Amino acid sequence: MTEELFDESVDVNFKGQYFTLQKALPLLVDGGAIVLTVGMVGADRGVPGATLAAATRGALLALLPTLALEVAPRRIRVNAVSPGSTATPLYDKLGVPAEAREAMGAGIPFQRFATSEEVAEAVAFLASDAAGYVTGQEIAVAGGLGLSLGI
Fold first, then answer.
1. How far from the centroid of its chain's Cα atoms is residue 111's Cα?
2. How does pLDDT run across 23-58, given as a tens digit for each residue?
3. Could you give the number of structural domains in the chain?
4. Secondary structure element (H or E) that encloses residue 101, with its range
5. What is the DSSP secondary structure assignment for residue 113, as one 8-state letter?
6. Which residues of 86-124 are buried (b: 16+ CB within 10 A; e: fewer)?
7. Which H helix or E strand runs over 93?
């Protein structure tokens, strides 16, 4: 782990969302909704090799209930979506072979990765009036992955 990689991970996984929220909150209408994107990897339980990812994502989960309480007087709901492995072009960019992706998918109770549309539907629900009385909650969109790994 280099300090540069550490800083980049903190910037991407926590700092970006934190300061975006800081700038967006004054512009958000009362009764609005905020949906944080957290990620599944080891945020609340140990996953070997994911120390930094767990720490930065854990920071977002720690922010969730406090922010929800802080903006509750404005009736702003704050929730989080934690996607598991999702079929995106990132795996191609990282050079992960199709066979490795299939093996990873086999370890998920639903036997496949999520689609980006499935993750977007969870975000859309939390942002909608259908979730009008939901705040401070995290939804894992991970095909049951947390059930099998205890995360």
1. 20
2. 999 999 999 999 999 887 555 556 677 788 888 888
3. 1
4. helix 98-106
5. P
6. beeeebeeeeeeeeebeebbeebeeeebbeeeebeebbe
7. helix 90-93
